[in-house]
Amino acid sequence: MTSQQQQQSASIPGNELRLSWKLTAEGIAKSADELMTKSKAVHDAVGALKPDEVTYENVIKTLADGDCEYSVRRNNLDFVQHVFSDKAMRDASVEADKKLSEFDVEMSMRQDVFDTLVTFQKKQGDGLKPEASRYLERLIKLGKRNGLHLPKEKQEKIKTIKKRMSDLGIDFNKNLNEENTILEFTVEELAGLPEDFVKNLEKTEDGKCKVSLKYPHYFPCMKKARNQETRKKLEIAFHSRCMKENSAILEELVKLRHEKAEILGYSTHAEFVLEMRMAKDPKAVSTFLQQLSEKLRPLQAEEVKLFLEYKKDECEKFGFEFDNKINMWDYRYFMNMAEEKKYAVDHDKLKEYFPMDVVTKGLLEIYQELLSLKFEEVPAADVWQQDVKMYSVCEQDTGSLLGYFYLDLYPREGKYGHAACFGLQPGCLLADGNRQISVAAMVANFTKPTPDHPSLLTHDEVETYFHEFGHVMHQICSKADFCLFSGTSVERDFVEAPSQMLENWCWEKEPLCRMSAHYKDGSSIPDDMLKKLLRSRTANAGVFNLRQILLGTFDQTIHTQAEADTAALFGKLSKEILGIESSPNTNMSASFGHLAGGYDAQYYGYLWSEVFSMDMFYSRFSKEGVMNPKVGQDYRKCILQPGGTLDADVMLKNFLGREPNQEAFLHSKGL
Question: How far, in Å, CA of 159 to CA of 154, rounded?
């Protein structure tokens, strides 16, 4: 522990912060080697036990204690590749991640450890507490899903495939993180964009504006740039990012996943994955996506008809050629126009009421009140970048420490390009019986402040902030005994539901008023502007949700076959489902990080879990009060606190008092 961390420990009783950001590239490599040596010794000890020697202490407790220490140190080393400015550090982290991932494959396929677990289950498995029993069953299940019940040559084949897949996934995301294309446009080519946006862009020597493909540049341009050619150039560049290398990686991953599933006795990779999810099988997912698609199609047809009317008017007004169709580079622009015209929501005006400091203060206050927590900024915290902030989280009534979170909110070169919550230190029991506090980081890419302007968030970004912070709370409020079930370690098609549920606060008057104030004079959002925003919630629901269905269907399709031409398939499905053709010479899936980052055959989960999120919100919070701390406590107790110690359907039933249903979800889509 660094001296700075020791000072923090002294100031906050019970602090067990086991992370450090004072790292070197050499130190990362050395730490990874030490970590593997230590973890291997734990597995060796368990694997060497004779049948008459196995006990709870030397099997379950030994493995669980090893998990706990390994996960913190592993997360610490892994996280560097996503957030450090120094490229040498990021590269060292990637190399360590590859080594550790290969090591994870080796340890997950230890026949001796698996045999010890099976022996222990036969001998003592009946008398365990529920969570310990679930831990034992899960480890044995994972062993079988790794082929440890199969002949040795099949196990070796699986091991080789898993190591290769692990390296490919790391490379896929590294390529995206390192991607730094810059396009140059004249001020005239950026007509339609806010003046301050254009003014703050870096300029070339001949006065052209430099536009990157990072979110704070790309999305405003796609929504506001009037010039069709500007949008077309950006869209084609955006969806051909890393196309050559990542298309090849994804297509190799599809083959390897299918091959591994077949060796394990599953007909497809999707069948293998979904066995451990709420959906259970590919047919349930396919039915869900198809039925929802049919319900949304009439909405989409109306929306596209309106977009074409707008496009025709624009072309006549500005002398562009009208091709009588909506292209990939058009739909965000006309979605934005529909919101502005049909619902009269002026997003540029609206974001003036969402300066970052006001949103952050309001958001943190709402979460504290709702979940009965107390947050305090930690002064002079050990962080990886000067603008990162760290907060402690305590129980409101007792003051006992639950954990810490970091906020890393602005883009920089080499940084993870989306918004996400990273669990860094799982909350669970330590070897000595004390509880390890949970630590999480929220990483995002919101527009940076400038000398003239604070960082101003669009309403979409406020929603993203609220969503990802919901994951942070899930990490910190869970009270699992075992690291394996800590925080967001729930079924992957439920993991988004707790955060999606909390997005609803961005569509309610009281919370919105609490996290907004005009950046110049502190005035409130005018009532009529607020009403228009709230009314616009179902705007473009057809196009938006059919795009989610497209992504989910693409993911399911490639993972229910042996191989795929990803660009051709994405183009075909895009036309069939969304009614919009892919741009020429692009492959959106080459930058679809979810498919190499753990969401393979599971992207449908965003829509699937939204069904439950809406049911939770409308059935409890909407009826009993969105800031009702009693419902907030129930939510903490039933949904956040269990982590992965219970099945998601059990948690839902405990919170709702009944089986979940789709009514609220369909209502929220305007159906």
Answer: 9
Whole-angstrom distance, CA of residue 645 vs CA of residue 484: 9
Within 13 A of 432's CA, how many CA atoms are on the CB side? 4
Q: Is the dihedral of CA 523, 524, 530, 533 positive or negative?
A: positive
Q: What whole-number percentage of the chain has pLDDT above 90?
A: 94
Q: Are 263 and 157 in contact (CB under 8 A)?
A: yes
How many whole angstroms separate alpha carbon 189 and alpha carbon 186?
5
User: Residue 415: which of 438, 390, 384 has the closest Cα?
Assistant: 384
Do the Cβ atoms of 34 and 399 come closer than 8 Å? no
Q: What is the CA 27 to chain-centroid distance, rounded?
A: 29
Helix spans in 408-564 (H):
459-477, 497-503, 509-514, 527-535, 541-558
Residue 209 pairs in a beta bridge with 185, 203
598 or 366, which is more confident? 366
Contacts of 511 (CB under 8 A, 6+ apart): 362, 366, 505, 626, 627
**pLDDT at 5 exceeding the cut of 80:** no
Task: Report how far residue 421's alpha carbon sits from residue 411's, in angstroms, rounded to the nearest whole number.
Answer: 15
Q: Which pair of structure tokens corresponds to residue 405?
A: 């979170």
Q: What is the pLDDT of residue 9?
A: 39
Closest CA to 257 of 269, 270, 274: 269
Radius of gyration of the chain (CA): 25
Residue ranges and CATH numbers for the domains of the chain are 3-108+110-145 (1.20.1050.40), 180-238 (no CATH), 352-540+605-668 (1.10.1370.40)
What are the angstrom distances between the C-alpha of 371 and each of 4, 252, 296, 394?
A: 30, 44, 35, 11
Let me know: does 331 contact 307? Beta carbons within 8 Å: yes
Distances from the Cα of 213 to the Cα of 172, 220, 411, angstroms: 17, 11, 12
d(Cα 538, Cα 545) in Å, to the nearest integer?
A: 10
Nearest Cα to Cα of residue 571 among 599, 592, 550, 556: 550
Pairing of strands 420-425, 401-408: unpaired
What is the arithmetic mean of pLDDT over 479-505? 97
Backbone angles phi, psi at 518, to 5 degrees: -60, 135
| Mean predicted confidence (pLDDT) in 640-661 | 97
DSSP string, 564-629: --HHHHHHHHIIIIIS-PPPTT--GGGG-GGGTTT-TT-TTHHHHHHHHHHHHIIIIIHHH-TT-H
Query: Whose structure tokens read 């009270």?
Result: 479
CB 463 within 8 A of CB 433: no
pTM (2 decimals)?
0.89
Q: Which of 521, 530, 448, 387 has its CA nearest to residue 196?
A: 448
Q: How confident is the model at residue 127 (pLDDT cuts 50, 70, 90)?
A: confident
Active-site positions read 468
Residues 6+ apart with CB under 8 A from 290: none
* Per-residue tokens: 125: 């498995």
Nearest CA to 373 out of 406, 398, 407 is that of 398
Report the distance separating Cα 367 and Cα 629, nearest Å: 10
- HEC profile of 366-433: HHHHHHCEEEEECCCCCCCCCCCEEEEEEECCCCCEEEEEEEECCCCCCCCCCCEEEEEECCEECCCC
Strand partners, 392: 376, 404
Task: Kindly list the distances between the CA atom of residue 65 and the CA atoms of 42, 56, 104, 128, 435, in Å, as whole numbers in the listed order.
Answer: 9, 12, 16, 17, 12
The kind and range of the H/E element at 242 are: none
How many other CB atoms are found less than 10 A from the CB of residue 607?
22
